[in-house]
What we know:
alpha+beta
Amino acid sequence: MKSVSVLLFALASLCFGQSADLVAVVSRPTERMVRLPGEFAPYEQVDVHAKVSGYVDKVLVDRGSVVKEGDLLVTMSAPEVKAQVAEADAKVKAIEAQMAEARARILAVQSTYDRLKQASSTPGAIAGNELVIARETVEAAKAALMAQEGARDAARASADTLRELQKYLDIRAPFSGVITERLVHPGALAAAGAGAAAAPLLRLEKLSSLRLTVAVPESAIGGSLPRGQVEFRVPAFPGRSFRGTIARAARTLDPNTRTMPVEIDVPNANGLLAPGMYPEVLWPARSLGASLLVPLTSIVTTTERTFVIRSSQGKAEWVTIRRGAAAGDLVEVYGPLKPGDRILKRATDEIREGTKLP
């Protein structure tokens, strides 16, 4: 019986010796990948409204139409605008006719003044005030002409404004993109503006590139935002990865969700991705400072506690810790450990506290 006990003790000692390798607690900054949900939105989006009120004549595009900047989308008619342009042009012509009469009057009064001035060289030929009156008449005629020139310029500017307004009856694409909504048909009355009474005619979206918005939790920001590209996956394309560039961040946290909205620019020239899709972003979460790292095999979990076994003056000491995220072959831990502490590489709860470590 005694020989059996000695044999069991020898086997236990052998197993303990094989598991008593000591490793140091590592301290370094960590980065882990966090999976966060995101949502695609068009890089640019606009509801196309009428700039002047009128009736829709033609709608040259429909849902799904690909357009370029400046392409004609809708033509409208507004008879009252045409009437206003014609009235403004007529006003300009009327003022120009008045200006022609004013120029003729200037020539006439100037001629009278010149004759009187010549006659005034002969003493007693004309009264002195006649020359003064003639001169003042010339100045008044010139002032009247200048006033009419100002009125003509104002009338021309008004006519030009109305002509520019008339150009707004042809609605063109403000940027290149895709028509995603058609909300009007020929014959409809389109109201100007963008208020509640002025419904949009079309919706135009730029889809050659997209904005991927992801709400990053406070714990995953790590004090600063990463730069460069991030990877994401879309359920519509299982097994395929895409990449985008971190472009913009709100720089403030939503007080309700404790997250920061971050925008990622995603090229989409092939049109595979679409607004409304919900991708999963692999976000690189960085620790704010250095983290304590230990091998996974060093962590012991029982029903009562989670701990590692530290070598303290050659004896086993159980140190309660809390597990964090994995960082490669190591695991981030929190607890009363210090960088460089020697712990068992392969720990077990069979190694009781106070056990002498070889």
